[in-house]
Amino acid sequence: TNNWTFMNSGDVITAGVGYGAHYNSAFTNDTVVSISGNLNTGDITLNTAMTSSGWNLIGNPYSCTVDWTAGITRTNVYGAIYLWNPVSGNYGYYVDGTSVNGQTQYIAPMQGFFVHGTAATGSVAFTNASKSTAPSYFRNAEINQLIRLSVKDQQGKSDETVIRIKDDATTNFDGELDAYKLLSGESFTPQLWSEY
């Protein structure tokens, strides 16, 4: 089911909830979107659910970068994060020290991202300890014992998948070690993934 809800000018946004924005390239005028309010600090908990097959669009509630691996408590949520990478035209993933399509553990200020819930109710709790001064942009991060496969078309659209060797992995999907493949909505963008 499509659970997207359209917003109107003047609607109130909620800290930590993910919002998507679509810009029609046919418009030639500049578009200004302004957000006002108090800066968030302290503990912020976001509830997750199993609607939309478990996918939850949440967001960094702070005006600074957060580190997905520090100061964040997940309840009934797998360990991977998924962010749209406009450069590759695909989703970037980060899970258990491994980057795919340039995504690291760092999430930009107010950046929306997907997580996958594992039960009817769950949560992601951010604390001030998750705040970071690290840069949050798409870049490569490598670890040992992995195979990285990538594909790129003539227009520069790309995708990649990673196969890792981990002693504590199983032959099934491991929510703390593996990431699901989110297909690009662009029909001609190359897609690459592995199956277990």
Blueprint (SSEs and pairs):
Elements: E1 44-49, E2 55-59, E3 65-67, E4 72-75, E5 81-85, E6 90-95, E7 98-100, E8 106-107, E9 112-116, E10 121-126, E11 131-132, E12 146-152, E13 158-164
Antiparallel strand pairs: 1-10, 2-9, 3-8, 3-11, 4-10, 5-6, 6-7, 12-13
What would you say this structure looks like, in words?
This protein has 196 residues and is mainly β. Helices cover 0% and strands 31% of the residues. The chain is built from no helices and 13 strands. The two termini are 26 Å apart. 27% of the residues are buried. Mean pLDDT is 84; it is low at 138-143.
Features:
mainly beta; 3-stranded antiparallel beta sheet
Helicity, in percent? under 10%
**Secondary-structure class:** mainly beta
Compressed to H and E, one letter per element, the order equals EEEEEEEEEEEEE
- Mean pLDDT equals 84
Global geometry: globular
Strand ordering within the main sheet = 1-10-4
Largest sheet: 3 strands, antiparallel
How much β-strand is present in the residues?
A: 25-35%
